[in-house]
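Ticket #4471: complex job returned nothing on first submit. Input attached below:
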Amino acid sequence: MPRSKGKKSSAPVTIHDVAERAGVAISSISRVLSGHPDVSERMRIKVQRAADELGYEPDFFAQSLRSGATKTIGFIMRDISNPFFGVIAQCCEQELRKAGYSMLLMNSDGDVATESTNIAQLRRRKIDGLIASLVSEDIPELNSTLEKLNAPVVLLDREVVGLNSSAILANHHQGVEDATSDLISRGHKRIAFISGSTRVYTTRDRLKGFKSAFKKAGVAYPTELVSLGKFDAEFGESETKRLFTLKDRPTALLSGGIGSTAGAMRGLKKLGLVPGKDLAFVAIDEWPMFDVYGQQFSSVYRDAAMIGREAAAALLEMISGGSPRTIMVETHYIVRESSTGGLKAKKK
Amino acid sequence: MPRSKGKKSSAPVTIHDVAERAGVAISSISRVLSGHPDVSERMRIKVQRAADELGYEPDFFAQSLRSGATKTIGFIMRDISNPFFGVIAQCCEQELRKAGYSMLLMNSDGDVATESTNIAQLRRRKIDGLIASLVSEDIPELNSTLEKLNAPVVLLDREVVGLNSSAILANHHQGVEDATSDLISRGHKRIAFISGSTRVYTTRDRLKGFKSAFKKAGVAYPTELVSLGKFDAEFGESETKRLFTLKDRPTALLSGGIGSTAGAMRGLKKLGLVPGKDLAFVAIDEWPMFDVYGQQFSSVYRDAAMIGREAAAALLEMISGGSPRTIMVETHYIVRESSTGGLKAKKK
DNA sequence: ATCGTTTCTGGAAACGTTTCTATTTTATGC
DNA sequence: GCATAAAATAGAAACGTTTCCAGAAACGAT
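Support reply: We reran it on our side without changes. The output follows.
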């Protein structure tokens, strides 16, 4: 029993105390404080003063238990230390806070079981809504798990069939196609592509853009240079090493997502290959500071802050009765120094 | 009384339903499920089965209201999108989750008023503990605000006098002194130093190391090159521009913290100055990817993951009755490419 | 058998709100 | 003034648990 008694004032003042002080019924206190219309001015003043004098603060749990609303939103991501997700989380929290909601943060650690445990935990806590970037889209029981939450859901960059939720999707294929086309037009044919599992929209949509660029250019699609598996840096690094030690090695690389990019850069460094010189390199999603580091990285950019804000807005909308909707966020190919190189003094 | 009217799937199953199903009293259900010792084996099995069959999940709010424990920890930071804080948050959440706690995340946006509102919100939610990186240490009412929380507190890199809390402090002065000494030994005398307000431990301890290096080397301390104000990138950028356009401009720069470093790098870029060449540059705290970017930045390093884990551990310890303690985390000067340069072909 | 002790169980009182219902007061129209 | 409606208030019943208390059953020991 952690009962730290500071001075002696640790008397938790309840609605009873206020009622007694003001000399009115408990129900009147509640009515005044929750802004019920049928309250006389005299009562309002009397209650307000008693509450102020006692420094009354309604007990959150009692309110939630009775009313059902928890003013709490669950937020599940693979890994909040990922700076891209960090920005989303920050903007989301700011918006939700403005609307009077608090955010319960949980990392799924990229693990399906952990994610499911987290959702169960959130259900017990009767959250008013959930924003999540799921590990995978086709987990058995996923739909029923989310439906049992009995709260509106906003998914980030995920398409779950048959689920009545909102979604914030990025238009990855456009940016990736632009980037790939640019590389092809510079003379690249052997372009490597590393990203996460095709079990999520993110990868599938990027792949669509990648393939489409080859098709439009009439260049053979280099199946053997496409490596799709996981989003983490370890995978990115090992695959980069594997691909760039092939006999006929790629001349360019697209890395899909923050983790892949980190791994790719580490892998290249260990191989002694310099982006923009020994190969052309485009990162999908930007690391913070991409704009100021000594070396300039090209990227397929999307606005994390906007994604966070849109997610919060969509969720709040659903909480107040609106219907689910899908929001598409654009991506943009940003050309920088690293888009050059990789071709033996042929061009430029 | 819509009790056993289980056609609709959204029937929230309560302890009553389980009691009815098992044919025992409500109190027995509670006893079995909370592992009370005085329960017969027969009862345990009967209740367990009934609960499983109905898929019973205790209501979190009812439990908290009655028992007082919320299994919830508050986590307040200036800005969760700061990758350094992101890592702390991630590790913290993982540890807390293992212990059965959930984490309520709030950004203070670097604003005292927002921070205070957040703390009030957390008090109403009766959190079991708080981990916070406060905006400032000497806010009036801060102590009483935190004491009114009536829950153990762990502060990150802050010293609040008279508050009975744990603290995770970094030994900044050691790392900063090492870095500064190295720069001095390379021939630098005019070393600029940009960091946040001296109203927090972080800055004061860094400054201590900075001054100490000059004293030990017997070199005059360059007061006019020290700029302490805010941790954000805007401040870092404008101060960098100001200092490096002085008539007698600095030959080296230390930037204090993630934000300052971002600002400093932007400022230098706009001035056309290259770290490691036109000036020597040491960042305090590392940006992710410092190890792989084209340009190699020196740093004063501290382990964010460890800070997160230690914070969680210290808090859990206090929750279970332990006393507050202060943990000192070491910092290390890591020399890379950017420690060179800035001296006109004098050395090296 | 009787009498303590344990061990186990059921009933009911909290926890601090909101909300429903019933009652009293006030205002309104004629 | 008087009926009638409307507004304001009090009282009490939830919400779903945990926990206290008292009693019942079980068990040895006399």
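Chain A has a mean pLDDT of 90. Closing as resolved unless it happens again.
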